[in-house]
Design brief:
alpha+beta; five-stranded antiparallel sheet; Heat Shock Protein 90; elongated; Helix Hairpins; 17 helices
Length: about 675
């Protein structure tokens, strides 16, 4: 009887041990699965965040252009504003409208049709928009308000930027003019960023109305998502932020793949052990067989655990108490390019990028020495030469006495997130470059104005001296008179150059009148005569023998010619040509169109780049902004013409644009 009770107790203990082992393995698998799931959610969330930040910042960029223009032209009319806004809005989809609010009262709108109800609205009397407006005026910076329910219908974000006029004296304070506003449709913005109907397979929610971050109201998705331990990501934009919560569509409570098999197998194994125990309690000779079967089942369970570790998308590793590597998973080997044997000991260090190696090794040694966890973002260099960004983390293993027996950890591939962050940073640098170019244009106009006065004085004084010399004596020094005439002519020429420069950079409302196309081309090429000589490039003019009149804004068409000639000179100067040739041609295509063609014999454009050459921010030059050709196309199409590019059969390329011509009667009247 006592022997039977002993057998029952023994097999009961074995059954409980198996259940405990299954529970531990299942908990471990669930924990690893949730970690992998969270890592995947974090990677996908980072992609959505980067796309949303980029889409929003591209639209908010127009506020800077409005502020710069109004600050120098505070008496802008509605018609002037519509022409400027039409050019800006054409470069970006998803803009509901551009507005100005003089003294915080809506005074200018584009497009006006459909938005008449908003004209004359005092923003400070609107409870929904007043907090963002006041914050923008107080800080003097761009503030993103909303989402706000518009009077015209629909939800929109509104970027508010205060406009301050430059004081007449440096000691005076800047004068508040009003606000520049970009009204952005919320749904197209979220759809473009992949928040709505994206392929990320995530449940998303966004809070931070009026750009106040985590403390703001929820304006997209289910607000309860923020209370369920989601992955959080801050969406940053100028002077504000939102917070986005993300969770997998399957829910965080989902079981790891194969978990039900492990549980069912464990219960089935316990049932077998219990039956065998009862049988063996009655038949001791079968006890060894039951033990063998139980051992085999446990071994198989361990094998399954190792198989799951091999299939994990996260690279797993284990080290001893001194930090020397004992084991790495197959995925770790795939990421690093090292084999399991090569990674053992300190061999794993070879996979770390040389520039990050010292920092990572010292951080790992410090974590081992201090018996604490290790976390770091660093680069791995694959033997193929590919650089991979990873997030590495580990925790120490402790025994019952608290002694460290080893370290376990994982590395996660975060290259996609790093690439997205780098792309966002490059885009921000491009926007800053555009702002610098705008500032330089304003400075150039001011300098031209200041230099024009002393040049006029030089001309007047030199001509006065010539008159007095000729009046004072009939045999005046002819050499001196000739030198003074030369000084006068050079000063007049310098004044003409400055006049052209000032006319080109001056901010004026486009004014279309009949202009002589050949004169516009000659005026533009004056800017490049010296630069062409330095670059050893021949500028060849093939202008039409007959006068061609077009109805256009001369400064805008001159800007198009300047952009195309500038691109041609840069293509020739960067190609090592010693006999560079840039040909500018004008001709009448028919009675309705006139054409300007700019042809170079440089290195040309690749076939792959041709479809995108006029896209905003697309460039084939290192450091280029990619806005010149996009602006040129907008100007030509606004004049009712078209622009195109072709690759020359003998090298280089030809840019050509066509404009509608004026008939003879109109030209004579002009």
């Amino acid at each position: 009887m006592n022997s039977r009770l002993l057998h029952i107790f023994l097999f009961s203990a074995i059954s409980l041990s198996v259940l405990l082992a299954v529970w531990i393995v299942d908990r471990s698998e669930q924990a690893h699965y949730q970690e992998r799931l969270r890592s995947i959610v974090l990677r996908r969330t980072s992609g959505v965040r980067a796309q949303l930040e980029g889409a929003l910042n591209r639209r908010l960029f127009f506020n800077r252009g409005l502020v710069a223009h109004v600050a120098t032209n505070p008496k802008i009319t509605q018609s002037e504003f519509e022409v400027l806004a039409e050019i800006l809005v054409a470069q970006q989809a998803g803009i509901r409208s551009l507005q100005l609010a003089k003294n915080s009262v809506v005074s200018h709108i584009h497009p006006l049709k459909g938005n008449e109800v908003a004209m004359g609205r005092d923003l400070l009397k609107n409870p929904a928009r007043r907090p963002a407006v006041e914050r923008s005026i107080e800080t003097g910076k761009l503030v993103v308000g909303g989402p706000t329910e518009l009077l015209q219908g629909g939800l929109a974000l509104i970027g508010y930027t205060p406009i301050f006029l430059k004081p007449a004296k440096p000691s005076d304070a800047a004068t508040y003019w009003g606000l520049a506003m970009t009204v952005i449709d919320l749904e197209p913005l979220l759809r473009e960023a992949g928040v709505i109907q994206g392929t990320h397979r995530l449940r998303l929610a966004i809070r931070g109305k009026d750009g106040v971050g985590a403390t703001g109201d929820v304006f997209f998705g289910d607000g309860n998502l923020f209370e369920s331990d989601p992955v959080l990501a801050d969406i940053s934009f100028p002077n504000g932020s939102w917070q986005m919560a993300a969770a997998p569509t399957s829910g965080r409570e989902s079981l790891a793949p194969g978990s039900w098999k492990l549980r069912f197998g464990g219960c089935f194994l316990v049932l077998i052990i219990a039956v065998l125990g009862w049988v063996l309690a009655r038949e001791p000779e079968r006890l060894q067989q039951a033990v063998d079967r139980a051992t085999a089942a446990l071994t198989e369970s361990e094998k399954r655990h190792r198989t799951l570790a091999k299939l994990s998308p996260v690279g797993l590793f284990r080290a001893d108490a001194d930090g020397r590597c004992l084991y790495v998973s197959e995925h770790w080997c795939e990421v690093s390019g090292l084999s399991g044997e090569e990674a053992k000991g300190d061999g794993w260090v070879r996979a770390v990028h040389p520039e990050d190696r010292d920092c990572v090794v010292s951080g790992w040694q410090e974590a081992v020495r201090m018996r604490k966890s290790f976390k770091a973002e660093f680069r791995l260099q694959h033997p193929s030469g590919k650089t991979i960004w990873v997030f590495g983390q580990s925790v120490p293993e402790l025994d019952e006495s608290g002694k460290v027996t080893g370290h376990v950890g994982a590395v996660t591939n975060i290259t996609e997130r790093k690439d997205a962050e780098a792309e966002a940073s490059r885009h921000q640098a491009d926007l800053a470059h555009v702002l610098r170019l705008s500032t330089m244009g304003e400075m150039a106009s001011g300098i031209a104005h200041e230099l024009n006065q002393p040049l006029t004085a030089i001309v007047n004084y030199s001509r006065g001296c010539i008159i007095r010399l000729r009046q004072s004596s009939a045999d005046a020094d002819s050499g001196l008179i000739e030198a003074l005439e030369h000084i006068s002519n050079l000063a007049v020429r310098a004044g003409d150059i400055i006049r052209r420069l000032r006319s080109f950079v001056r901010k004026e409302e486009p004014r279309r009148v009949p202009v002589q196309l050949n004169s516009v081309v000659r005026e533009a090429l004056h800017f490049f005569e010296e630069e062409a000589r330095r670059a050893e490039v021949t500028l060849q003019l093939e202008l039409s023998q007959e006068d061609i009149w077009v109805f256009a804004d001369a400064v805008q068409i001159e800007q198009v010619v300047l952009n195309l000639v500038r691109n041609g000179l840069e293509a020739l100067s960067g190609d090592g040509h010693k006999s560079g040739l840039l040909t500018v041609q004008t001709r009448a295509l028919d009675h309705q169109l006139a054409q300007v063609a700019v042809r170079d014999n440089g290195k040309g454009i690749s076939e792959a780049a041709l479809p995108h050459i006029f896209d905003p921010f697309f460039t084939t030059r290192p450091g280029g902004m990619g806005v010149g050709l996009s602006i040129s196309r907008s100007i030509v199409e606004a004049h009712g013409g078209h622009i195109q590019v072709a690759i020359n059969s003998d090298g280089g390329c030809t840019f050509q644009f066509a404009l509608p011509v004026k008939n003879g009667a109109d030209a004579d009247a002009a």
